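Observation: inputs received (chain + D-altro-hept-2-ulose 7-phosphate).
Thought: call the complex predictor directly.
Action: predict_structure
Action Input:
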Amino acid sequence: MEFQERITQHFVDSIETKQQSVMELAPQIEQASASMVNALLNGGKILSCGNGGSAGDSQHFSSELLNRFERERPSLPAIALTTDSSTVTSIANDYSYNEVFSKQIRALGNEGDVLLAISTSGNSANVVQAIQAAHDRGMRVVALTGKDGGDMASLYQPDDIEIRVPSAVTARIQEVHLVVIHCLCDLIDWQLFGPLED
Ligand SMILES: O=C(CO)[C@@H](O)[C@H](O)[C@H](O)[C@H](O)COP(=O)(O)O
Ligand SMILES: [Zn+2]
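Observation:
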């Protein structure tokens, strides 16, 4: 029974964090979708990065743009910077793990592209450096964070958007990040291709 109570508590906490998040974050999520649509309409692309569960989230997002979300539509340009193990391991080996994303951004990022930077703490040094590289390349940033926003919080420029989940628990923050990612995919499709036909 103790285990079932723990399971129930996880679900209750997740639901409560999601309810609090939608009340606080809906405007920022809408703005983030508009920033991404603006980039895509102008020939730009979306680069994404994060560590651990957030690496999975960055790949989840890019696959839904590159392949599909809920409808048939053209492929949309996105690159997860977490997936090329030869590049990631060689940068980490020859330089520093802190540079695994920023070095790729300096090569692949162009003015008008968007960086989706994902970190529950806002303190991952390689995501911090990714934001700095994105700014150097004239890119806008959409950041998915939590807790107190961490070191990333002091880096944003006026056109950047931070979506900070109101929770201090990593798992809860990640669960909201996934809903936000699905909202972004849905809003991008609506703005580019119109309402979903049934
Ligand atoms: O998924 C989890 C915890 O739920 C972990 O893999 C977690 O993502 C890793 O510890 C990350 O390194 C945490 O980095 P960050 O979210 O603070 O940037
Ligand atoms: Zn996790």
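Thought: report the result.
Final Answer: The domain at 23-193 is CATH 3.40.50.10490 (Rossmann fold). The first helix runs from residue 2 to 41.
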